[in-house]
Amino acid sequence: MQTVKIDRIINTDCARLMSKIASQSVDLILTDPPYGICYRSKSRRLSRQTVEGDEAPYIWWLHEAARVLKDNGSLLCFTRWDVIGAWHTAIEYAGLRVRSCLVWDKGVHGMGNTKAQFAPQHELCLFATKADFEFPNGRPVDVIRVAKMPSADMIHPTQKPVALFEQLIKVTTLPGALVVDPFAGSGTTAIAAINTDRHFLCSEIDHTHFTASCRRIATHKREYALRAEMRDQDPIKP
């Protein structure tokens, strides 16, 4: 049994969160951790924000990830091309097997060196599993096309679209599954879990981001409950 309540986000670091989770109790870990690239947003509104702990890849939480995942559980971990080798090695060293590298096609390219670098239009996500994992709804493709969020809608410098995380949750788990995110950021994993009828447990070490994500999740829960109530009252619902 978990020693922490589920369906909430906690203001703590990833190691403390994972240490409170029972072995073989988690269906999916879906996370976008600090890559080790000293990230700073190019958005003018978010340009003063950095990602805490992003000076070097912090990978030791992966051993705890392997412990808490069920034997048929899986890990989806976003990363970047210049540090993907370190993450691949660390994931396998922790006892998981890297099965695929997913590509998120954002539809539009970002910034970078405009004279000597290809315009970046994608992000990478390593998919790793325990020994008994099988896709619950058939084999998905490894390229996911979801539009990047407008900067004006972001509350975190590396915020991912909810639709992207919903797809990842649906193809790897069934309703009622427990999804964990030890680097919650803006709370996107929690929102996607709610929308897909999964449970969630998240942590965020930065208090500012934690507070913002709590507000976002609370607002979404109210709106989600209201929509569900309206559907239940609809006399012509299918």
UniProtKB/TrEMBL annotation:
GO terms for cellular component: cytoplasm. GO terms for biological process: methylation. Residues 26-211 form the DNA methylase N-4/N-6 domain. Its EC number is 2.1.1.72. One of its GO terms (molecular function) is site-specific DNA-methyltransferase (adenine-specific) activity. Keywords: Methyltransferase, Transferase. It is an enzyme of class 2 (transferase). PANTHER family: RNA METHYLASE-RELATED (PTHR13370), TYPE III RESTRICTION-MODIFICATION ENZYME STYLTI MOD SUBUNIT (PTHR13370:SF24). Belongs to the N(4)/N(6)-methyltransferase family. This is DNA adenine methyltransferase YhdJ. It comes from bioreactor metagenome. The gene is yhdJ_3.
